[in-house]
Amino acid sequence: MKFFLEVNPLKKTLQAFKNALRIAATRQMGLLMVTQAYTGFVMSFYVLAFPTSVGSTNALPDPKSLVGIAGLMIGTGEVSGAIGWGLVNRWAKLWGRGIVIISSTFCHLAAFILLFLSIPDDAPFGKNTSAPTYIAPTETLVCITGILIGIGDSGFNTQIMGILGQLYPDDSTPAFALYKFSQSFTAAVGFFYSSVLTLPWQILIQTSTLLLGSASYLLVEYRLIDADTTYERI
């Protein structure tokens, strides 16, 4: 008797898939998936392209050891950002989550500009390079860049999770599944081109998707605020 009362696993899976498709078809999720896609691109960048570029730059003192330090700085930025954005969120009902996204956008823009100016164009290829740069690369610049990337990344991810939970309280599982799908898909694309494209082209992709993702998030966020300042579901 118990067997017949149990929910069919296949039916449950199909229903979850249908829910995900239904949510993906909404305008809010369509816009947010652009932002989610950016988090995948930037993930592939700081996991592969950034450390590879640092380790290949001969102008840096002991570049191989700086790879680990760069990763440590990204982690420091992630933790610091999560704490800082958590404090900022106390005033989110006043200013909206958009203030965190705007701040994170500026952090990433600053990081990309520093990389463009101080790291050789062919550094992502993984071969030691002494190609000229606009400004001399230093350990300090590498550390600052890593921290900025970490702070910005934590800002985007925390706010995406926050707004998804607010918009889809009854459909959080498929909503977050779409988030991870978008992020993972673009991360895979990013890993593919990381060792093929020169640094300026990679930075162009990052900057373009950053601006598109930020604009998409702000569109959803401020429509939400305009509709209901208490952040109720729209």
Structure characterization notes:
With 234 residues, the protein is an all-alpha fold. The chain has one domain. 77% of the residues lie in helices and 0% in strands. It has 9 helices and no strands. α3 (27-56) runs antiparallel to α4 (63-88), α3 (27-56) packs antiparallel against α7 and α6 (98-118) packs antiparallel against α7 (139-167). The longest helix is centred in the N-terminal third of the chain and has 30 residues, at 27-56. The termini are far apart.
The structural domain count equals 1
Q: State the helix count.
A: 9
The H/E string reads: HHHHHHHHH
Kindly provide the radius of gyration, computed on alpha-carbon positions and rounded to a whole number of angstroms.
20 Å
Mean pLDDT level: 88
Instruction: Indicate the structural class.
Output: mainly alpha
Uncertain runs are 1-5, 228-234
Distance between the termini: 42 Å
Which strand-content bin applies to the residues? under 5%
Gross geometry: globular
Membrane topology: Multi-pass membrane protein
Protein name: UNC93-like protein MFSD11
Keywords: Glycoprotein, Membrane, Transmembrane, Transmembrane helix
Family: Belongs to the unc-93 family.
